[in-house]
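User: quick one, sequence for these tokens?
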């Protein structure tokens, strides 16, 4: 019988090979070689195939067949293998015992929701920081992909045996929040009859007007400060008209300075109000999307606690900073960045990069063994400078991993939807969810590797057809529920079924597919690739539908009936477990 720790058969075989390599002093030369077990295309080539002997042969300049013979002798002691054969120049083909395959439905039914969970992570503490969008407007569909990917990745890592901490970094101390506060205040002034210049590069969305209305409704004209003085202060900004000029960003900064002077202490209210409104909207949106966090970490807290200044001081103490043009620069080019970066401007204000360094230092000071940041693909160039800062702070940069996520592009009737938070022309995540539903959104977002371009077909996501992968998988789950409902007896009896009766080609193939699930979870965790779960589920559903269409389940032969019902009940459990990792429901009826 298989123990719970041996349900990951690939891991079991890997341990055997690592032991023999170590015993033969071959481990050092093969240490960096991944021991991989592929699924042969032909069943005559076994259930698994391994090319380790050929890789070692090239490294050690030995005959791969001689090494293969050594490895085969070691693998032959496994109680789960019927035989191990050598093929070609040194391939190793492994054949599982049929009786081992037939045990898996019982293990799955007994393990329930825990089937597929393993110990690969060995309890290591890993922080996954994702989404972390500026709270300056509703989340759009680009943020949605990062949310779905990050949440699914965290679930997969948790299932693989890591102690996972999910975190959202709130950029509540930067320029973008000042722009949103200014934008809202200017709209508020309009409601109070004050004619003002509204910059073309301020936040334009209707949600800005909504926040202005809330302030006006609650406080009337309280925050109208010196209208004449405001108009005088803004008059030179208006010369460029409503459209943004080449120096529009500098003009916007000037407006923010003027607003802070005019509002005085009241500016903090406007700033904190719009932050609370947008952050609250973001929390609710993500919660409705099934995305939850263990912590929402405030950037402002890094400044209030002095951690930004402390991090910069440590870099200066290490000799990694220099002064130029009144600013303080980090020598990031020494760590592979294309140029050095400013940490503190001439006006003594710290840059976003400075607070980001402090935030990453804080992460490791909290004791995480690994830190995974989920960033948009447009932040690719940011990686060398952050890793360089970690190295300069005497931290191991290899413990910081960056998962890049490409934006998703929506298509409806072949037409592409554009989105831009600042211009107000964007498709929100909430609108997408209302259109196609949470399940389709979560699944479609992780259907491709995160760093690959994603075209999101809205029409396909809503279709009830075999071409819609999430519908296809959920329908498989519902079909099993329907069969078991027709049977009408207590499913607990299925763990006693005689599974040796599962001997047909389709059944053995399905059994092997079930065996693959724990290894798929482990691979998804190792490669930071939850899309592997989506691929697996689609393949399992496809095999099940074929089996369903060709097989009778409620047959008069009671032992055969129970065996087949046990198999499809196990399939239902694996479908449910996999969908749960991706944040997708497993309906019993469709």
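Assistant:
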């Amino acid at each position: 019988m298989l123990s719970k720790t041996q349900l990951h058969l690939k891991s079991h075989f890997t341990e055997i090979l690592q032991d023999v390599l170590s015993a033969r002093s071959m481990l050092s030369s093969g240490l960096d070689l991944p021991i991989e077990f592929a699924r042969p295309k032909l069943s005559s080539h076994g259930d698994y195939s391994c090319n380790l002997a050929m890789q070692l042969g090239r490294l050690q300049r030995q005959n791969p067949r001689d090494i293969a013979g050594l490895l085969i002798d070691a693998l032959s002691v496994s109680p789960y293998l019927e035989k191990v054969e050598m093929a070609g120049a040194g391939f190793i083909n492994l054949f599982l015992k049929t009786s081992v395959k037939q045990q898996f439905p019982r293990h799955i039914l007994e393990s329930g929701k825990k089937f597929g969970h393993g110990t690969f992570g060995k309890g290591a503490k890993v922080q996954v920081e994702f989404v972390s969008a500026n709270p300056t407007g509703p989340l759009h569909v680009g943020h949605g992909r990062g949310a779905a990917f990050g949440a699914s990745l965290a679930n997969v890592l948790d299932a693989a045996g890591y102690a996972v901490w999910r975190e959202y970094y709130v950029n509540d101390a930067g320029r973008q929040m000042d722009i949103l506060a200014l934008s809202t205040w200017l709209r508020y002034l309009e409601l109070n009859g004050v004619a003002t210049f509204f910059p073309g590069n301020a936040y334009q969305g209707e949600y800005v007007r909504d926040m202005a209305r809330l302030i006006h409704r609650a406080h009337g004209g309280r925050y109208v400060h010196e209208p004449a003085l405001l108009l005088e202060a803004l008059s030179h900004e208006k010369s460029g008209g409503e459209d943004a000029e080449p120096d529009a960003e500098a003009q916007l900064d000037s407006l923010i300075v003027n607003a802070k002077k005019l509002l005085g202490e009241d500016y903090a209210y406007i700033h904190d109000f719009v932050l609370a409104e947008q952050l609250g909207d973001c929390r609710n949106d993500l919660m409705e999307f099934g995305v939850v966090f263990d912590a929402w970490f405030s950037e402002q807290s890094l400044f209030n606690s002095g951690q930004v200044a402390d991090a910069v001081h440590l870099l200066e103490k290490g000799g990694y900073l220099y002064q130029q043009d009144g600013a303080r620069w980090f020598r990031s080019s020494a760590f592979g960045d294309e140029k050095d970066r400013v940490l503190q401007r001439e006006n003594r204000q710290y840059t976003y990069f400075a607070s980001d360094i402090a935030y990453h230092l804080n992460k490791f000071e909290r004791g995480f063994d690994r830190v995974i940041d989920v960033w948009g693909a447009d932040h690719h160039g940011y990686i060398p400078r952050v890793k360089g800062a970690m190295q300069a702070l005497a931290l191991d940069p290899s413990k910081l991993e960056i998962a890049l996520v490409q934006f998703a592009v929506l298509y409806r009737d072949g037409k592409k939807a554009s989105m831009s938070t600042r211009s107000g022309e964007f498709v929100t995540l909430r609108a997408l969810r209302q259109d196609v539903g949470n399940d389709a959104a979560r699944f479609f977002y992780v259907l491709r590797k995160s760093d690959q371009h994603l075209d999101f077909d809205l029409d396909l996501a809503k279709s009830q057809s075999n071409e819609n992968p999430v519908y296809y998988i959920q329908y498989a789950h519902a079909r099993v529920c329907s069969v078991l409902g027709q049977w009408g007896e207590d499913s607990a009896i299925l763990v006693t079924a005689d599974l040796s009766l599962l001997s047909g080609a389709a059944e053995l193939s399905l059994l092997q597919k079930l065996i693959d699930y724990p290894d798929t979870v482990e691979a998804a965790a190792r490669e930071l690739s939850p899309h592997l779960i989506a691929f697996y589920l689609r393949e399992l559903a496809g095999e099940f539908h074929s089996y369903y269409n060709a097989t009778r389940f409620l047959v008069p032969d009671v032992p055969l009936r129970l065996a087949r019902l046990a198999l499809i009940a196990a399939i239902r459990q694996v479908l449910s477990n996999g969908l749960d990792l991706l944040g997708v429901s497993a309906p019993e009826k469709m």
